[in-house]
Amino acid sequence: MLKKRFFTLFTSCLALVFVLPLAPLLGAPNQIQKGEMAGYLLVPNDKVQETYNAGFSMYVAAWPLLQEYPGRRFQTGLFGTWMHAQYDSRPSERLYSDIEGGLGWWRDTRFATETPKFIMGGVALNFRAWANGPGAGKGRSWDEPRGKYGVAQFSPWLLWPPDGLNLKQGTCGELFGYGYLPLPLTEAKSTTAGKNVPTGNNCWTLFLNTRNFKGPVAFFTPYFWSRVTVDDPRLGGMFLDSRPSGPNRALQMETQYVPSVQSTDEKGQTYARIAPTSFPRGPQGDSAVVHRVTAYNKKALWDAVKAWFEGGAPASGAIDPKGAVVHSFPGRGRSTWKISVTRGKKVPLAWDSFASSVAPDSSTYGFRWNYELATKKDTKDGPLVTLPEYYRLVNDNDKRAQWVVIRPEDVPAETGLAKVSFSRPREQSSQPYVTPDDAQSCWKKPGPVAGPFKAHPGDGSVVTYYWYRFADQPALLNADLTDIERQSLQARVEKLHRNWKKDRDYLAPPRIGKLADIDPALIVNPPQGLEAGYVPIATRQAAKE
């Protein structure tokens, strides 16, 4: 899946609470040791021409990966991608910077349930900062925002909680459509923060296609990418504010932690059990997990919007298919999932024994299951297929270690694995997200025009939000824009708010399945008189009292 390495620093890793005590050493019979399953599910897709360098979109399945949320060590994405800047030649030094994010669960998720959330996941140079959405980024302190001002709210109809964008609770296999395309909302300039380095005008904008919301949501400010060049002018023009996007991206599911346990029997044979892990199950028993991965050039949207801003006819916002190309799936893929004890050797599991990669059509990727090993499961939310839970450690013909599937009844009772519980542990209450309250801060000066209001999403939190004039939202007051530049941006967005509504297609609709819903509590309507040019901004998210 997606590289979420940069989220791991947020919180300490809290141990899962199992029913049985966990032994410090592996190998002693009748003792259980905690561990994890981690790795990637790799999804090959055919390359397209490098000229399709103005963003991407795709549909990915959203579902409850684990039967029960296992606590704050849990970190995994669902299927997603990494969008890097496109270069004419490979840079001579490490310039890691991209848009990743996606659906999943992270160690810094404060209000988690079995239903995944969505984050934007923009990464500045070599992880110096990252931005997950409006008001959400690296670290906790607002004294060092490090990306928390990196995303500006665009939509007046969708509230973005700092803990991540909630899907409707119980989402189970529906498709979540999203992508990033650049919009010319600002003008490129030759100076940045008073220094002689450029900032481009690529405002990489998140577009969604869900059942109850469609269209642009938020965008990375160009200054989020170019800020690092103020201290290192050599790097001016090297990031996504100025560069196009590489069209041929990795597509994976990255799993950093699914809980597991191991034990040995009296003969010294080692067994493992993983937390119940499931995938969505379609009508034919297969799982469609990725659909219509599409790359764009500037004919798709940029050119029409630019012409509109220069005095031409209004752009509808619908993506022009003449500027789009859909990647094809060859129908092969592989898994690098491995099971290990904590800080122990990682051994691959025999994924191919129960799962086969398939492409039911050229634009869809998924899995076909061996139901002699995997299990069909019907839940209150929808049909799932649950992976085998029990494994035995063996050496294959090349004397390489591997975990092979074993039936539950064939696991020796003395291992104690059958009695282990993977239920949700008791953990300390989540601390609230709180924005600065200083009367002189950008949150208060000039400040909101309406509020406070409260939203109650299905994760058990309460989100407090206010309505700000678009150009006066904190992210744009920290985007290295002059008053004149912000006023020009305000005028452009007012045009877009009046013409681009939330109930029509922007991204091409999927050709299979059903669309997922965003949590209805996050669909909002502007107060009377604030319909164009104003946006909802969350200032606090806390557990429901």
Mind explaining what this structure looks like?
The relative contact order is 0.20. This protein has helices at residues 222-226, 302-309, 474-477, 483-499, and strands at residues 32-42, 56-62, 75-81, 83-84, 98-99, 102-105, 117-119, 122-123, 130-133, 136-137, 151-153, 165-166, 174-183, 203-209, 214-220, 251-264, 270-274, 278-280, 287-296, 324-326, 334-335, 338-341, 347-348, 355-361, 364-369, 375-378, 383-386, 390-395, 401-405, 433-434, 450-455, 461-469, 534-543. The protein is globular. The longest helix has 17 residues, at 483-499. The protein is built from 4 helices and 33 strands. It has 545 residues and is mostly beta strands. A hairpin with a 2-residue loop joins strand 9 (130-133) and strand 10 (136-137). The two termini are 35 Å apart. The protein folds into 2 domains: 5-16 and 40-255 and 288-329 and 428-543, no CATH class; 256-283 and 341-419, no CATH class.
Features of this protein?
twelve-stranded antiparallel sheet; 2 domains; 4 helices; mainly beta; 33 strands; 545 residues; nine-stranded antiparallel sheet; disordered N terminus
